[in-house]
């Protein structure tokens, strides 16, 4: 009997140890995958075809992306500034030691109102050409800015709006020094909106109005949404991705929250959001809106997702933007 009990206990201990080892091995593998995904999402590659957005991937492609990682080349384009208007010129904005931001400045005759436009994640300033044209037609000057790592700017990385807040501050300072507009408006889409919010929160930037599209409430939730689109449980993968991403980029990813930055917004602001947006859900953007203490408007677009609302609903976009600016400037 004692021999049987002893043998049974040994088998039980072996089974428990095997489970522990399997758990530890799985934890290590999960962290390795999270680290690779975080690195791939933050540091742009210099070759290969970009991985499609999660909404466009087939099941096989999703499995490949989950286990092999994604490829995100440095955002670039081949346009000339004159694609917007003959008055547009290329400029370089100093952005710290030995770094700079590529930008286009377009100045209509005698315009004393300036809109600075900031693009989204893995995009560049050419993604905002059509929006810039609308502002120009309304006799606003425009300054389209490439964030660090994109097209005509230096560096080859992104921080999903965290250090891009420094870029917003640099662009605003440059505009104040060289263009001296009577009125300054900031426009940002997705990551650009987040960078604007953090710049206002961190640097106490003063502008006359803000327009944001597709702003997320916090980094963890927007990463969770990507997992949902991929058909993968968000826990613990999203949390590990935010942890490693923050560690790689040098900040606490769990504290990168526009909903927290919102309390610092001190000027009129217009929110746009697509009701079909699966990357940033409508109620998440509304949570940010609710926390803004200044004059504000929230407008949703029933048929658009995480994309340009101007491209899908041009008349609605133009009318609401111009009504907002005419009312508050």
From TrEMBL:
Any GO BP: proteolysis
Chain ranges passing through the membrane: 12-35
A Pfam family hit: Peptidase_S9
Domain Peptidase S9 prolyl oligopeptidase catalytic: 131-329
Domain of life: Bacteria
InterPro entries xrefs: AB_hydrolase_fold, DNA-binding_regulatory, Peptidase_S9_cat
Coiled coil: none
Record's protein name: Peptidase S9 prolyl oligopeptidase catalytic domain-containing protein
């Amino acid at each position: 009997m004692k021999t049987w009990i002893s043998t049974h206990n040994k088998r039980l201990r072996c089974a428990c140890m095997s489970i522990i080892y399997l758990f530890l091995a799985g934890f290590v593998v999960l962290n390795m995958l999270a680290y690779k995904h975080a690195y791939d999402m933050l540091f742009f590659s210099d070759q290969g075809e970009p991985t499609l957005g999660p909404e466009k991937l087939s099941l096989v492609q999703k499995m490949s992306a989950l286990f092999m990682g994604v490829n995100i080349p440095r955002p670039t384009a081949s346009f000339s500034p004159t694609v917007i208007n003959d008055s547009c010129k290329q400029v370089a904005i100093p952005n710290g030691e030995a770094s700079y931001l590529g930008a286009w400045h377009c100045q209509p005759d005698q315009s004393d109102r300036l809109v600075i436009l900031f693009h989204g994640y893995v995009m560049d300033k050419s993604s905002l050409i059509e929006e810039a044209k609308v502002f120009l037609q309304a006799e606003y000057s425009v300054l389209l800015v490439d964030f660090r790592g994109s097209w005509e700017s230096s560096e080859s990385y992104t921080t999903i709006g965290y250090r891009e807040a420094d870029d917003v501050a640099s662009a605003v300072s440059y505009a104040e020094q060289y263009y001296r507009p009577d009125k300054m408006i900031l426009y940002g889409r997705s990551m650009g909106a987040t960078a604007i919010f953090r710049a206002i929160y961190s640097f106490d930037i003063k502008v006359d109005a803000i327009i944001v599209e597709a702003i997320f409430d916090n980094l963890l939730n927007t990463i969770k949404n990507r997992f949902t689109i991929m058909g993968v449980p968000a826990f613990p993968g999203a949390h590990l991705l935010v942890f490693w991403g923050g560690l790689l980029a040098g900040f606490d990813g769990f504290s990168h929250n526009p909903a927290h930055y919102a309390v610092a917004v001190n000027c009129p602001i217009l929110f746009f959001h697509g009701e079909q947006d699966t990357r940033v859900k409508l109620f998440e953007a509304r949570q940010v809106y609710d926390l803004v203490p200044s004059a504000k408007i929230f407008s949703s677009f029933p048929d658009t997702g995480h994309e340009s609302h101007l491209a899908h609903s041009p008349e609605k976009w133009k009318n609401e933007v111009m009504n907002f600016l005419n009312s508050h400037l």
